Amino acid sequence: MESTAVIVTRDLTKVYGHQKAVDRLTFNIKPGEIFGFLGPNGAGKTTTLLMLLGLTEPTSGHAQVLGYEPIRDPINVKKQIGYLPENMGFYNDLNARQMLHYIAELNGLSLDIAEARINVALQEVGLSDEAEKKIGAFSRGMRQRLGIAEILIKAPKVAFLDEPTLGLDPDATNRMIELIRQISQERQMTVMLSSHLLHQAQKICHRIGIMIKGQMVAQGSMEELAQEKLGVGTEAYTLEEIYMKYFKET
Amino acid sequence: MSGIKPILKKELADHFSSYRFIILFALITMVSMITVYMVGLNIQRELNGVAKPRFVFLMLFTSSGTLFSLVDFVAFFGPLVGLILGFDTINRERNEGTLSKLLSQPIFRDTIINGKFLAGVVVIGVMISSIVLLISGLGLIVVGVIPGVEEVGRILIYLIISIVYVSFWLGIAILFSIIFRSVATSALAALAVWIFFSFFISMGANAIAGALVSDTTQDDPEVVLKQIKIQRALSLASPLILYVDATATIIDPMRKTTRTIIQMGMLEQLSMARFAGPLSLSQSFFVVLPYIVSLLAITIVSFAVSYLIFMRQEIRSI
């Protein structure tokens, strides 16, 4: 199973000063799945993503993304991963199309490939009509969707989405979740979705990892977690119940 | 260096369309044109009915009109251009949250600094070259003297030294924009360093030289010489002094050394007095070469420090 895994970590640890932000994290993510990375604020989710991207150096332990080690070979890792940071910034005086062109150029795409991918991506996230508008005038929902478009033009095998629904209204949240499901299915993209919105995660994630205080306290499919913690069958539970169970224990 | 081209392109577009650039450029153009016009009128008046000296054209740059010469102007205010262009290079991206996005693209971290620095250097180059060209044109009209080949060569070297000098300050500003997260702090810190190295070093050098070699008698030549040597050595720590010495020698062929009269030996003084002709371009160049190398060296050092700090910095989205 490990040879087919997209992301493998072994005892991944990051220490800031005296505090263990991430504590001996071990997990695998299989190709094509949506992995829900859940946990309260400050549980070390973002730090883990940054380590997998090669932007932060782990204190100890190993990580492999698509066969590359993020620390040794960050360029190859970053070629394959699309990353949506938590507080994503944009160049407000560019319009959406210019922004996407810039990203395409940074990824070394030729102009005609870039052009084609940008049109498809804008279509897919529903920003085709707003493509010539300055990003400064975008709403939060539009910005998040533009962030997804930035990932799409890279055509990565893996996407890291850090709190993609943060601060969105219910309607925009649903659209975002639907969009993530859609692109993951259509493009066979592995998605690692960090969130603390359990309700949405439950809807689209194939497997779930619960992270509390730097440790992965549980991982598996909804059924497995429910079985393990609540001892109930497949119907009478929500992710929230499972989560709170774990949360209270630690 | 993959990825440097898009960054360079974007940064250049940002610079050229920013109000910051337009205001700076307008200000500098205005000041230098007024200065040169007055200097030109001065030269015209003085040269009336007198045999023309050999290097009239270069006098446009060196002789001071009512306030300061153009060379002095660049020496004092050129650094400000570099600082203003660079003080928010990295921390602005960090504050706006675009840095983590940029870094998650398949480019090396140093590519970002390189691209931004290079864009700044291009802007500085465009600014200084166009001003020098403008002044030359204005000089042609006002003074009515055509520069010779050698004069053009000297102006070119002057141009290159000036670009390196201002780029050094750009490098310092970028360094502070990496160290400090707040834009205002990095601007202030860069200004403080500029003021220290440009104004206080020469004053401090005086005081330290006086303290190290006390001259109670005031007339012992040994002591006076020693004091001046110490003072010179200390003030060479200032990029301003490096720049002023280098450009003054390259642009004024009659200056044969960067040293002051007191520091010259007997024979040197003798030869100065006997051979009153101007120095050839290549000889002037050899005199200032160490200064150019020093300016380049401090630029590279400031860059190396920027790399070191930026490579180790944690990139959090917050």
Structural features, described:
The complex is a heterodimer of chains A (250) and B (318). Chain A is built from nine helices and nine strands. The relative contact order of chain A is 0.16. Chain A is α/β, with parallel strands linked by helices and 250 residues long. Chain A has a six-stranded mixed β-sheet, sandwiched between helices. A three-stranded antiparallel β-sheet of chain A has the order 2-1-4, covered by helices on one side. The two termini of chain A are 30 Å apart. In chain A, a hairpin with a 2-residue loop joins strand 8 and strand 9 (215-220). Chain A has one domain (2-249): Rossmann fold. Chain B has 318 residues and is mainly alpha-helical. Chain B has helices at residues 4-17, 19-47, 56-62, 70-86, 89-96, 98-103, 109-143, 149-179, 183-212, 221-235, 239-251, 266-274, 281-312. The longest helix of chain B is centred in the middle third of the chain and has 35 residues, at 109-143. Chain B starts with a helix and ends in a 6-residue tail after the last helix. Chains A and B meet through helix 1, helix 2 and helix 3 of A and helix 1 and helix 6 of B.
Compose a concise summary of this entry.
The complex is a heterodimer of chains A (250) and B (318). Chain A has 250 residues and is of the alpha/beta class. Chain A contains nine helices and nine strands.
Descriptive terms for the model:
heterodimer; A: 250 residues; alpha/beta; Rossmann fold; 9 helices; 9 strands; 24% strand; globular; B: 318 residues; mainly alpha; 0% strand
Distance between the termini of chain B: 29 Å
Q: Write the CATH architecture name of chain A.
A: 3-Layer(aba) Sandwich
What portion of residues of chain B belong to β-strands?
under 5%
- Can you tell me the residue ranges of chain A where pLDDT is under 50 for at least 5 consecutive residues? none
Low-confidence stretches of chain B: none
Distance between the termini of chain A: 30 Å
Task: State the name of the first-level CATH class of chain A.
Answer: Alpha Beta
Mean pLDDT across the residues of chain A is 87
Largest sheet of chain B: none
Q: Which structural class is indicated by helix and strand composition of chain B?
A: mainly alpha
Strand elements of chain B, count: 0
Number of strands of chain A: 9
Output the radius of gyration of chain B: 22 Å
Helix-strand pattern of chain B? HHHHHHHHHHHHH
- Which structural class matches the secondary elements of chain A? alpha/beta
Helical residues, percent of chain B: over 70%
- Compressed to H and E, one letter per element, the order of chain A equals EEEHEHEHHHEHEHEEHH
What overall form of chain A do the CA principal axes indicate? globular
- How would you classify the quaternary structure? heterodimer
Shape of chain B: globular
CATH fold-level assignment of chain A: Rossmann fold
